[in-house]
Design brief:
This protein has about 270 residues and is mainly alpha-helical. The protein is about 85% helix and about 0% strand. The protein is built from 13 helices and no strands. It is globular, with a radius of gyration of 20 Å. The relative contact order is 0.12. The model has no long low-confidence stretch (mean pLDDT about 90).
């Protein structure tokens, strides 16, 4: 719910001060919140920390995707967009395996403590990056303009307000598509079908393998089909696999449904960055 706040705040900061430093600050704060989440002793504290996490998560995605995509050649952005987005699926895949390996032995708190490792590695990597030429050119144009930054933003909103609304609606739908098909699926397998936590973890892993395949494949295909057409095809094809994803009673059939629906869900997302 608070991700839009982070996206707005860190987006404004990134326009003024670059992508790299705000990204490092964001990730540093992220490691603190993740570490503190593991020490939560009541629900109110945990929810408060996760709210701050939501703000940081909203900022991190915009900063990271901007830094990556601005540095890539235009003619290769389709495939690289898919590769970048499927870092999300790889992280989800690793988290599922860590859950299976760690939580039964060390408890849920250890999972949050360990999660600071990839964030810390990313901070180090970001330290050695340069700002993109695209940002430098945009910043020079801002400095050359006699208008204050907020006036430039207001002018953009006046001229492109319909496109802004379109982008918000599109991203809301895309998040329904991804989080609606991923977040509670392990719980669905356990509660509705009676499968074990181990089987639910396997379901998450298989789904993320499908996501990795779909994101990279359709990211590449979007160079030929176009971005909007690729998203539409993936959304329609993904809807066709909903019955296989939820209705079968056999575990293998549900795994097939999880794999293919995530091929198309993350196939659509592979175009987004």
């Amino acid at each position: 719910m608070l991700r839009p706040v982070g996206a707005l705040v860190f987006g404004v900061i990134a326009d003024r001060h670059g992508r790299r430093i705000p990204l490092m600050v964001n990730l540093f704060l992220f490691t603190i919140i993740e570490l503190a989440s593991g020490f939560s002793h009541n629900l109110s504290t945990f929810i408060g920390l996760r709210a701050v996490y939501g703000i940081l998560m909203g900022g991190e995605w915009g900063l990271g995707s901007s830094l990556a995509m601005e540095a890539l050649p235009v003619e290769s952005r389709g495939i690289f967009s898919g590769i970048l987005q499927e870092g999300y699926a790889v992280g989800n895949l690793v988290a599922a395996m860590m859950y299976y390996a760690i939580v039964p032995n060390l408890g849920w708190r250890a999972l949050y403590w360990i999660s600071i490792i990839p964030a810390a590695i990313t901070i180090v990597l970001a330290y050695f990056l340069d700002e993109t030429d695209a940002w430098r050119q945009a910043r020079q144009a801002q400095r050359a303009s006699s208008k204050p930054y907020y006036i430039i933003v207001l002018d953009m909103l006046k001229q492109h307000w319909l496109r802004c609304i379109y982008a918000i609606v599109l991203m809301a739908a895309m998040n329904f598509l991804s989080h609606g098909s991923q977040d509670l699926y392990p719980t669905f397998l356990k509660k509705q079908h009676g499968f074990s936590p181990k089987q639910a973890t396997v379901g998450t892993i298989v789904g993320n393998l499908g996501a990795i395949v779909g994101g990279m494949f359709f990211g590449y295909i979007s160079e030929y089909l176009g971005r909007r057409r690729t998203i539409a095809i993936c959304a329609i094809c993904g809807a066709c696999f909903i019955p296989l994803w939820i209705l079968p009673s056999k575990f293998g059939q549900l795994l097939a449904g999880a794999f293919f629906i995530q091929v198309f869900v993350q196939g659509a997302w592979g175009v987004i960055p």
